[in-house]
Specification:
Structural class: alpha/beta
Shape: elongated
Distance between the termini: 71 Å
Number of helices: 13
Oligomer: single chain
Largest sheet: 5 strands, mixed
Length: 260
């Protein structure tokens, strides 16, 4: 492309442009360093194209990606040569994303994760799942997810136990999880997600009741060091908490012994 063409392409940093994927690189400011699994997103892009532009800043004759690494990776995997992008000129100081949009880096990352997760659930299940930073109690009863809750769902989605499910089943399970935790306080919602990751095939209502019961009953258990280490390893492997692993182990043993 000629220099004149480049100048024309960049004349309005707020304009939606089609830029070559080969000229986009992931810089130090990108809020998501690891794009994760983009198989489903790649399929969607193959069918519908890239529905939301990425955000980049011009650096010489290339573009530094600020937001949208999953969309970029999926677009490349889908074989696209160009991707829609908003080009915004930013100085090194302005590159601090918190200054650009008036929010913290963590807020931006959480927001992107939440939006992408909810978009996927809506696409796969046709569910009316929405996210707000601080929904009212009534909105939460109606299924509106607080931003932090949606982030928990995104993290659950990336765990091996959930990634191992067929794509549609995974989406349905995550939709049920979203509906379950929407009205719950943050600590309880986080625990429900941890237990869900351990055993996604369990009925959601059963998981929620287990968490409520454990919250009401405090157990003090002295563990053999080998058991404690095994619990720690299992929790790390499954990206969940030792409490969730222990709860599932106790639940499974009691069921095998026919105590319930």
């Amino acid at each position: 492309m000629s220099r004149a063409g480049l100048a024309s392409e960049r004349k309005d940093p707020s304009e939606l442009l089609q830029i070559e994927t080969s000229r986009v690189f992931v810089g130090k400011l990108n809020v998501r360093r690891r794009p994760g699994d983009v198989i489903d997103l790649t399929r969607s892009i193959q069918e519908k194209g890239v529905l939301e532009p990425v955000l980049v800043r011009p650096v010489g004759y290339r573009y530094e990606l600020v937001i949208g690494s999953r969309r970029l990776e999926a677009a490349k995997a889908a074989g696209l040569k160009r991707i829609p992008a908003v080009v915004r000129k930013m100085s090194d100081e302005e590159e601090q994303l918190a200054k650009v949009i008036g929010k913290s880096r963590r807020y931006v990352e959480d927001h992107i994760n939440a939006v992408e997760t909810v978009r996927g659930l809506r696409r796969e299940t046709r569910a009316e799942v929405t996210v707000k930073s601080a929904p009212t109690p009534q909105e939460r009863k109606e299924g509106v997810l607080p931003l932090k809750h949606a982030t928990y769902i995104h993290k659950a989605e990336e765990t091996p136990s959930i990634q191992g499910l067929p794509s549609h089943e995974r989406a349905v399970k995550l939709k049920e999880l979203a509906e379950t935790i929407a009205p719950l306080p943050q600590p309880e919602a986080e625990k429900v997600v941890s237990h869900f990751v351990m055993a996604p095939q369990r009925p959601m209502e059963e998981i929620r009741k287990d968490v409520q019961y454990l919250r009401a009953v405090k157990l003090e258990i002295l563990l053999d060091p080998r058991v404690a280490e095994a619990l720690r390893t299992a929790a790390e492997d499954r990206r969940t908490t030792m409490e969730a692993v222990a709860s599932l182990a106790i639940h499974s043993w009691l069921r095998q012994q026919r105590y319930f």
